[in-house]
Amino acid sequence: MATHDLQNHTLNGDHCDHNIPISKRPKLSSPSTTITNATIISNSQIQSEFSHHVASVARINNGSFGSCPQSVISAQKQWQLQFLRQPDHFYFNQLKPGILHSRSIVKSLINADHIDEVSLVDNATTAAAIVLQKAARSFSEGRFEKGDVAVMLHYAYGSVKKSVEAYVTRAGGRVIEVQLPFPVKSKEEIITEFRKALERGRDNRKKVRLAVIDHVTSMPSVVIPVKELVKICREENVDQVFVDAAHGIGCVDVDMKEIGADFYTSNLHKWFFCPPSVAFLYSRKSNDRDDDDLHHPVVSHEYGNGLAVESSWVGNRDYTAQLVVPSVLEFIDRFPGGIDGIKKRNHEAVVEMGEMLVKEWGTHLGCPPEMCGSMIMVGLPICLRICNESDALKLRTHLRNEFGVEVPIYFRAPKDGEVDPVTGYARISHQVYNKVDDYYKLRDAINKIVSDGTICECLPN
């Protein structure tokens, strides 16, 4: 498989001087970029970069926590030492220029118009709070009417759902969930359900003020047709569109001009190799919106100076995850095709491994291959009898403790009239450090449980 022919290297982690002019454009690789054999990363070097992973565990769950190569960890340690050696010099002379440099790289990567549209925050959950708190203020200050609507996907991430409840619902907004099918057969199914939700939102002459759309749903994992949904929102006069792409950058194509959302967030520590935790929040500059009404949830001395500046200092803490973006880009650019090449190989590999597993177990994938990125849902054998969320968690724990396999398990309740439905799915990920043996280990573990006649109800808690 082409994915496992990748070449690897070990990078020098000392990228902390930052005498580089802020205006210098980053080198962004594309599939046509020429890379010499001397600089291409070798397979053995990939394994060296991730040698801190526990070797006995098949880690096919990059989607949850991401992964950071050793060279980037070394760069982060250098930043941390610079702070600890002389905090005042670091604060006054290095922190803001360093964050600005990272923001400039993100701006180019996502094709934003202006660097002021890009802020760095801890994670996508923080970004969601920023956007949703703005919506809540619009309700409480009378710009939105009580009962106006926010639309979000049924499979929205749990913390985002809670944030919508905490901010929008409590402020007087009404929330409508888009009921999505699973397994998914086509993007048209999603588009149809989304249109239905917008129609419900306009009942009683209320306005749809905000649409919260995932780019890649977490569980079950499906790539959502965001460009099509954003276009529908524009046609239907939805006030603002927020794309929650926690799994976006490094996993799927991310282009702000093509997507056209008002707000877009993605973690950099999931599929972009940053250490935990760092994400970007894109906020499209618009003459039709009060751009100054976005604020970091933690109020600091920088309050009122714009979200990007507010986010660059929220008190004394470790900012080094935000400062290593240039080092991450150097790591990525050692792969043929850069980030686009990595995305392509991860996608092809996870589809191949998913198809191998469903053929072995006589099941099916959770979506067509074109609707997955670097993760895919793989149907588990029916005879495991995964009947509820507890069964799914017990199976996941059993795979970790007894077989050294780390993979999330999803329970899907059977629909009325279904005969022997697949109710359990494994969400497998593929990142550059993964090997075919990782997926064989999952295959063999499930086969052993099946051959023993064990059902999930009987597994230990």
From TrEMBL:
Keywords: Pyridoxal phosphate. InterPro entries: Aminotrans_V_dom, PyrdxlP-dep_Trfase, PyrdxlP-dep_Trfase_major. Residues 93-286 form the Aminotransferase class V domain. GO terms for molecular function: carbon-sulfur lyase activity. This is Aminotransferase class V domain-containing protein. Residues 1-30 are annotated as: Disordered. It comes from the Eukaryota. It holds the Pfam family Aminotran_5. The lineage of its organism: Eukaryota, Viridiplantae, Streptophyta, Embryophyta, Tracheophyta.
